[in-house]
Amino acid sequence: MVIYTSLNNNKFMTLEWKPKGKPRLKSFKEFNLKTGEIIGVFQGSKGNNPELDIVVKYRDKYTKFVVRTPKHIHWVIDLLIKKEHNEKLTLEFIKYVLDTYDKIEPFRKKEDQLKCELKFTNPENLKKFEELNKYGQYSVEFIGHVIELLSIEEKTGFEGAFMFKRVLTALYQSKDIFSIVSAATHNGRI
């Protein structure tokens, strides 16, 4: 069972983050996954709409006290591992999140940001991909949530940005490893 919590309706918050040179922040929304990870959403300050910007952090089941930033390369490598074990289902999962990218809307007002609803990567939609949880470190729930949240962040603050779509397309099209890693690490073109 997934428990979604937020400052508005939660008695306890578990994730805090200290941005460089700024005061410590508490997440205003958290997603507690059934595999033990906690994804926290914090107020950001970048892009075209800094008041609506978000920063995504997580704490995994291995480093229970360390709050980390989900890097593109981490979930990309995990998907490549999953693909080696079940190519057909992994490509279906990648296609699903790629298709949802076009449907994801940026935050348009503060209320939307504070709600921070995940519309596409809920457990019902991801159930058919759960077999992939046998491979790699991250669950499809974790990868799906991170991709949806970071896509919202990208679309909210960086109009015209398309990094996620580029990375997901490279994975779906089974591009060469150099192209995929370059797309995931901001270091090159596909």
Provide tags for this entry.
190 residues; alpha+beta; two-stranded antiparallel sheet; disordered N terminus
Explain what the structure shows.
With 190 residues, the protein is an alpha+beta fold. It has one domain (3-184). It contains seven helices and six strands; from the N terminus they run ββββββααααααα. It has helices at 72-85, 87-103, 110-115, 123-126, 140-157, 163-172, 177-184, and strands at residues 3-6, 16-17, 25-26, 29-32, 38-43, 54-59. It starts with a strand and ends in a 6-residue tail after the last helix.
Could you tell me the strand content as a percent range? 5-15%
The overall pLDDT, averaged over residues, is 87
* N-C termini distance: 38 Å
Structural class: alpha+beta
Q: Given the C-alpha coordinates, what overall shape results?
A: globular
Q: Stretches where pLDDT falls below 50 for ≥5 residues?
A: 1-13
Strand order of the largest sheet: 1-4-5-6
- Amount of helix: 40-55%
Our count of helices gives 7
Number of strands: 6
Radius of gyration: 16 Å
- Along the chain, the helix and strand elements come as EEEEEEHHHHHHH
How many domains is the backbone divided into?
1
What characterizes the major β-sheet?
A: 4 strands, antiparallel
